[in-house]
């Protein structure tokens, strides 16, 4: 990370902590809800089947930048299915960097070409060992690992959504993150039970078991992009929400923190660990500040 970027983010953090400002630093743009998969835990794919046009996406990028956001995520649907004429995701990432965003990341299911060196991090979904992953996402496990092997830059991070089908396979997936030279880390989230997916939610005992496993793996030096303090707060469920430092934009519609805030009662069952970590960070939690500096600077 460049020094001026670090100083900007540090100043933003200090203003948020001491002046209690409710401004955002991380923005997510939903490019499309089209997806080539129908994953068991997903409730937001192929609803409208719209690919948002480049000019609209550009306007959203420019607006987010004017508002002070410097960390940008592109999401879907399946993000890599986005295209408008001759413009594709690589064009968008380069344009975002031209605008001035410090960090530009992509979230994908990993079944399409991952050779996108312009992106800082490609967050790729892998949700268990082969049998379990395929049960959740369809027969895609081998395809994903083939796409990883073809990628020329090691800017890939596994993005695992923990649910009742895969919570016992955390070690197995983390081993892949450790042993594959194309993968730099793994980031976990817990299942957020959107309507129709409630059966995948973990019990309190299962959540505790999963958290204990992740914390053990962190202690053993595995490349895990999560904070132990955030995991503890997830179990206590006592963190402040919404997280004002994150916004999601789709077709001009903005949601503070994430789209789950729009579903009554769902916010209390949030499993997005990065939102928990950001909430703790910008409330001035000293332990989280040091954990985040140690962890994020290693992988960003």
Report a brief summary of the structure.
With 300 residues, the chain is of the alpha/beta class.
Walk me through this protein's architecture:
The chain has 300 residues and is α/β, with parallel strands linked by helices. It has a single domain (23-299), classed as TIM Barrel. Helix content is 39%, strand content 15%. It is built from 10 helices and 8 strands. The protein has helices at 3-19, 54-66, 89-99, 130-137, 141-150, 170-179, 204-219, 228-236, 273-281, 286-299; strands at 26-30, 71-75, 103-108, 121-125, 156-162, 183-190, 246-250, 253-256. Strands 6-5-4-3-2-1-7-8 form an 8-stranded mixed sheet, sandwiched between helices. Helix 3 links the parallel strand 2 and strand 3 (103-108). Helix 8 packs across helix 9 (273-281). The longest helix is centred in the first third of the chain and has 17 residues, at 3-19. The chain is globular. The mean pLDDT is 94.
Number of separate structural domains: 1
What name is given to the CATH topology?
TIM Barrel
What would CATH call the architecture? Alpha-Beta Barrel
In terms of structural class, how would the helical and strand content be classed?
alpha/beta
Oligomeric assembly: single chain
Mean pLDDT: 94
Instruction: State the CATH class.
Output: Alpha Beta
Outline type: globular
Low-pLDDT sequence parts? none
Series of secondary-structure elements, N-terminal to C-terminal: HEHEHEEHHEHEHHEEHH
Helical proportion? Answer: 25-40%
């Amino acid at each position: 990370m460049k020094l001026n970027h670090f100083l900007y983010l540090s100043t933003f953090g200090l203003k948020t902590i001491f002046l209690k400002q409710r401004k955002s630093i991380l923005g997510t743009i939903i490019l499309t809800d089209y997806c080539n998969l129908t994953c068991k835990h997903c409730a937001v794919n192929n609803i409208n089947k719209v690919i948002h046009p480049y000019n609209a996406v550009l306007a959203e990028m420019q607006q987010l930048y004017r508002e002070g956001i410097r960390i940008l995520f592109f999401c879907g649907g399946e993000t890599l299915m986005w295209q408008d004429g001759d413009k594709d995701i690589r064009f968008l990432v380069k344009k975002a960097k031209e605008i001035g965003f410090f960090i530009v990341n992509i979230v994908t299911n990993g079944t399409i070409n991952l050779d996108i060196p312009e992106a800082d991090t490609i967050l790729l979904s892998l949700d268990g060992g082969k049998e379990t992953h395929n049960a959740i996402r369809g027969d895609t496990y081998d395809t994903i690992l083939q796409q990883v092997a073809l990628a020329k830059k090691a800017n890939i991070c596994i993005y695992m959504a923990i649910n009742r089908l895969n919570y016992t396979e955390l070690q197995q997936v983390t081993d892949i993150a450790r042993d594959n030279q194309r993968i730099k880390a793994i980031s976990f989230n817990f299942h957020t039970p959107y309507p129709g997916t409630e059966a995948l939610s973990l019990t309190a005992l299962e959540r505790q078991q999963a958290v204990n496993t992740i914390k053990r793996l962190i202690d053993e030096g595995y490349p895990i992009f999560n904070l132990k303090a955030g995991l503890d707060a997830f179990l206590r469920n006592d963190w402040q929400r919404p997280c004002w430092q994150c916004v999601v934009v789709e077709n001009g519609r903005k949601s503070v923190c994430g789209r789950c805030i729009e579903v009554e009662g769902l916010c209390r069952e949030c499993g997005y660990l990065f939102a928990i970590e950001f909430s703790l960070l910008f409330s001035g939690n000293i332990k989280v500040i040091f954990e985040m500096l140690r962890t994020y600077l290693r992988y960003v």
